[in-house]
Predict the structure.
Amino acid sequence: MALAALTAAYEVWLGLRNPTVVGLSYLMVVLLVAAASTLRVAVGTSAVAVLALNYFFLPPVGTFFLEDPENWVALLAFLVVSVVGSRVSVLARERAALVEDRQEADRMRQSAELKSALLSSLGHDLKTPLTAIMVATDNLRANWASDQERREQLDIVASEAARLNRLFRNIVEMARIETGAVAPAPEWVHLPDIVDAALRQVEQTLLSHPLDLRLDIAGAVRIDPRLTAAALAHVLENGGQYAPPGTPVTVSAQFTGGELRLAVRDRGRGIAPEDLQNLFEQPYRGSGAGRRSFGTGMGLAIARGLLAAQGGRIRAENHPEGGAEFTMTIPSALRAETPADPGAP
Amino acid sequence: MNLPARILIVDDELSIQRAMAPLLRSRGYDVVVVGSGRDALAAAGIEPPDLIVLDLGLPDIDGIEVCRRIRARWDMPIVVLSARGAEQDKVTALDEGADDYVTKPFGSEELLARVRAALRRRSASDQPEAGQWHRRDLTIDFDRRRVVRGDVEIRLTPKEFDLLALMARHPGRVLTNRVILKAIWGPNAVDQPEHIRVLMGQLRKKLEPEPARPRYLLTEPWIGYRFAADDD
């Protein structure tokens, strides 16, 4: 097709007669075809190009006969270059496919390693609360415990059951993210509603932290409210767990350049430099966390997954004035609202 | 009357501490709780307990390292709590001097049984390792290297007797393949667990009424062997 068009253009409009120029431009077409399709098509194209060159441009024009032996040599060289060129390009593409296969295998292997790390961490996270519950229920069943001791053992059962529940929810959430089952459903929402929903999910963890909310966005933003609130909840929970009781947690929001930015800042010890790399990998606990009763090590990975599902991202850094700051960025739209214009869509 | 046995619990999980400590106190033990390896070594240094219950996953020092450091200075029994699935951790802890292990999740009775057995061994190990030893219907005469079950004498080869004697001297205690190989065949044999499998098979065939369901020489899967304690 391209060859026919080129031939017609040279012959009819441009009146080009120089066989070298025509031959080189044919060669370009042949190589382009070789780069884009199979060897067989490429060889076919080069044969057509040779015939066309011979018929239309090499004297005597209008025949497949060549009178000058030099033109035989030129034609042969043309054929060899086009076949070799297309062969090389096919080889290059095959090799690229091979590299891609190998990368795919690497990704699979990494994913398998991740799964086994996740499983062994889950083993620990499940067994510790289970042990506490088993021993505490045995204690409750026994007759040696005073009323005060019974209340303590009941507290253990209740809090460890809540911990198992948190863990279970996180596992389900993580599985939904990993299998791509999280579909964003953006809506026009008001940011305070999102923050409110997130705060309610992590009420217990944040009890000992004063909250400082700076949500100065006038109008509605277009985001998935559930995914965003859940992501924010995980980030808030993380801050509440790592920062010492009594220290404030700040949530601030900004809308710039078509993106909503939500920042959560705590006044804890900040993030150790060696942790900044792996913070959003799962399962992960900060090097300072030890193995406290809270947390599944999955929270930040889940937050990242929930944000990624709606094209967003999350970043962690240490605030210059101390504490850790997590910034979530979500592509969004802003619709200004005035009392006179009560939010028509 | 004896003083109550003093038990040091080393576990950083608050809920485990708060469930385990009153349980052990209810059985009359004197209980001290710490949450880190450093505190465990310090507490043992101030007043060595009669037994240590040690969680392997500690926030500061690796539990196996704590085991090694305790063993370097003291000889009280160590019962290891392990939540990890890997058997290798338990084997390493036992090789490093732990006496027994309990796998999380466990119930009260399991823990109490291990604690009782370990404390009993402590008092038993004060006795000389000679003379005659009776268990159920089994009599082992260490001096004359004779074994009698009921009233039938069982003829054992020297190696078979060594293996039986080694295990019977530590009733209830888990002996890893490595420990057994080193004791019976010497330090060069520690990488040849097939030695044990063969010898244990022969010994069971002679000693156990039903070798496929051993009563005395119990297998601890993936870890080693244990001579049945009284409450096994």
Summary: The longest helix of chain A spans residues 69-141. The radius of gyration of chain A is 34 Å. Chain A touches chain B through 28 residues (CB under 8 Å).
